[in-house]
Design a protein that fits this description.
Growth Hormone, Chain: A; globular
Length: about 425
């Protein structure tokens, strides 16, 4: 086994820095797409954070916040495949621009919300933005291979994931400050502006051509807007099925974690609200660091190997996070471990996206991402329900440990898959 020396690693990171500068400096379209995603996702976190706080302050009801969240996520479950079909049927650049414009316009009614009786406006806007966000995601991911060369895909996807984590960190803080200083109107104004800027940036993208060797090289045209994913190559169809199974396992676990993270910090670790905020911030910081590390030094591992190995590592770190309180009754290891988990999480995300972009042809790529998003959303909701039911019966830690074991299982699935 070859040992990686520190000097070799430093040379690799230095070379990775040059590759990142070359990617960002030499690829105008990717630079615009990345910046548009960073700005619009920051706006998403601003509105998500500020609106959740405003709704609770307005109604005093946790049920209202839960209904709003459910309506925003439900379209992913129902419309994911249809959204993917749209990304394959229509010009993806124009679809992204139109969606940004419609998102900006759809947020304006929130400025009229003044009393609890107007919560129907919030619910309608949540559903509207949920539908459009469902359309947006597969088009964005399917566009990347058309503007980034194959050898740079892992690096480009890692940078995209890092931008998402940076948007989460910045947007959550900005949303809280904005709603406190200027109320809901300030939050809406920031998000509307973010979508407007994103639309302008993406309107300037040069119309990309399908990557060489994809649909134009022999794949047949995909079906209509029925959301089906019918691949002519058996091995590629197997790859999509593996990714769907992976996403279902991971989505179920993420639903569990989203439900039990706050009870874990409060009841198991004995932390207060500030500890929970630190816990989530450390998770975002770890994701940023992990995305940067992968972008700097993606290595030569195949996307499948990167996905499988990183997912197993994430499961092991999560298992240590959930179990250490049984032996060490202290709070400080939690943010350290969740931050450390961000490293393999970022690598797994980059590996997953790159693998999904390479197991099918361009004519069906939007459908694939739509199906994957639908599988993730559906099992995520199921995970939330299961965690709510089992957390109080089985216990918080055992249920979270099952989630960690699921990650290890998903990683093994990816590693053992054979692209026949």
């Amino acid at each position: 086994m070859t040992e990686t020396r520190p000097a070799d690693l430093m040379r690799g990171l230095s070379g990775g820095g040059r590759e990142i500068r070359a990617l960002l400096g030499g690829n105008r379209d990717y630079r615009r797409l990345l910046l548009a995603g960073l700005i619009s996702q920051t706006g998403d976190w601003v509105i998500g954070t500020g609106l959740a706080f405003h709704v609770y302050r307005l109604t005093g009801s946790t049920l209202s916040a839960a209904v709003m969240l459910l309506l925003s996520r439900l379209p992913d479950v129902v419309l994911g495949p249809v959204a993917g079909a749209l990304a394959d049927r229509w010009d993806r650049r124009r679809l992204l621009v139109a969606t940004d414009v419609l998102l900006a316009l759809g947020l304006l009614p929130l400025a009229a919300v003044r009393e609890p009786g107007q919560m129907w406006i919030v619910y309608a806007v949540a559903l509207w933005t949920g539908v459009l966000s469902t359309v947006l995601a597969p088009a964005q991911k399917a566009l990347v291979p058309q503007i980034v060369a194959g050898p740079q895909l892992v690096r480009a996807n890692a940078l995209h994931g890092q931008a998402g984590q940076a948007a989460r960190l910045l947007g959550a803080m900005l949303g809280g400050a904005a709603v406190s200083a200027g109320g809901l109107a300030a939050v809406v104004a920031i998000d509307v502006a973010s979508f407007a800027v994103s639309a302008v940036l993406q309107a300037g993208l040069r119309t990309p051509r399908p990557p060489a060797g994809t649909a134009a090289a022999g794949g047949r045209r995909g079906p209509g807007l029925d959301g089906g994913v019918r691949l002519p190559v058996a091995g590629r169809g197997t790859g999509v099925r593996m990714l769907v199974a992976y996403m279902m396992i991971v989505g179920l676990g993420e639903g569990v974690f989203a439900t039990l993270a706050a009870p874990f910090v409060s009841d198991v670790l004995g932390g207060e609200g500030d500890a929970y905020g630190l816990f989530l911030s450390a998770q975002a910081v770890g994701g940023i660091a992990g995305g940067l590390l992968v972008a700097l030094h993606p290595g030569r591992a195949a996307p499948r190997t990167l996905l499988g190995g990183a997912t197993i590592a994430l499961g092991v770190v999560d298992l240590a996070l959930f179990m250490y309180p049984l032996a060490v009754p202290a709070l400080w290891p939690a943010p350290v471990l969740i931050g450390l988990a961000g490293l393999p999480a970022a690598a797994a995300t980059a590996g997953f996206t790159t693998l999904a972009q390479t197991v099918t042809d361009d004519a069906r790529l939007g459908r694939v991402f739509g199906v994957l998003a639908g599988a993730h959303a559906a099992t995520g909701l199921a995970g939330m329900a299961l965690a709510g039911l089992l957390g109080g019966v089985v216990g918080i830690v055992p249920v979270l440990c099952v989630h960690a074991a699921g990650l290890v299982t998903a990683g093994i699935l990816a590693l053992t898959w054979r692209h026949a």
